[in-house]
């Protein structure tokens, strides 16, 4: 057992405790380890500890890692950061999940590239629950219309919603973001014209995932609490 494995066990225990505290069944929250800026050896340690899917922000970095681990058939990749449309072709070749869908132009590009690859992709609609201008994501008030507009894109399997809560020590401000996600989710569940399903909520990171679980998170994206502080690219990827 190395440090990554120990950290994983500690985070998984915290997830289970938070789930029970929230009155939820053990195992109802999925852990998505975020391996961005960390090298292959840490991913391998997490894999050996039982993890089978990893989250990456940068497409080029994720593609390099996917190629490096191409001989590991059950290792999967989720792209969780903002995506430019010209990178859609890359994501379509290797990713199993995309957690930051926030424009129809991007949806069309992904759908077209996936069709060419004869693949499909699980996607989460990113919602700007904090209404911060510097953040990507669909506005809360536009989320339902956006979900309806995704219906034509048959290669995108809409699984739910994703958000980044406000970065703050004010727990009520953070909780407000998660509460708004529950409200959006409920509106979508009552809309029979929205694409896909909306049972999934991808929200909560190292600093707030326990609070996110209290508000219904089904996937928590945890990086630093597992892998440690982020590195500079030149420190983990030669060249």
UniProtKB/TrEMBL annotation:
InterPro entries membership: Ala_racemase_N, PLP-binding_barrel, PyrdxlP_homeostasis
Function, in words: Pyridoxal 5'-phosphate (PLP)-binding protein, which is involved in PLP homeostasis.
Cited CDD domains: PLPDE_III_YBL036c_like (cd00635)
Family under the similarity heading: Belongs to the pyridoxal phosphate-binding protein YggS/PROSC family.
Designated name of the protein: Pyridoxal phosphate homeostasis protein
Keyword set, alphabetical order: Pyridoxal phosphate
Source organism, top-level taxon: Bacteria
Residues with the N6-(pyridoxal phosphate)lysine modification: 36
Native species: Microlunatus ginsengisoli
Domain Alanine racemase N-terminal: 7-229
């Amino acid at each position: 057992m190395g440090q990554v494995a120990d950290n994983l066990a500690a985070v998984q225990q915290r997830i289970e405790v938070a789930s029970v505290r929230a009155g939820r069944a053990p195992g109802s929250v999925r852990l998505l380890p975020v391996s961005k800026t960390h090298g292959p050896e840490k991913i391998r340690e997490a894999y050996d500890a039982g993890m089978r899917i990893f989250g990456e922000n940068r497409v080029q970095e994720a593609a390099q890692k996917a190629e490096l681990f191409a001989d590991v058939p059950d290792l999967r990749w989720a792209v969780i950061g903002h995506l430019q449309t010209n990178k859609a072709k890359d994501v379509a070749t290797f990713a199993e999940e995309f957690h930051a869908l926030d424009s129809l132009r991007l949806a069309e590009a992904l759908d077209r590239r996936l069709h060419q690859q004869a693949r499909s992709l699980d996607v989460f609609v990113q919602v700007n629950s904090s209404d911060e201008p510097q953040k990507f994501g669909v506005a809360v008030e536009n989320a339902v219309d956006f979900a309806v507009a995704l219906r034509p894109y048959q290669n995108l399997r809409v699984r739910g919603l994703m958000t980044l809560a406000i970065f703050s020590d004010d727990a009520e401000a953070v909780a407000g973001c998660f509460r708004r996600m529950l409200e959006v989710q409920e509106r979508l569940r009552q809309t029979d014209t929205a694409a896909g399903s909306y049972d999934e909520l991808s929200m909560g990171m190292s600093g707030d995932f326990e609070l996110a679980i209290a508000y219904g998170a089904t996937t928590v994206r945890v990086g630093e609490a597992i892998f440690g502080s982020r590195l500079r690219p030149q420190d983990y990827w030669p060249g």
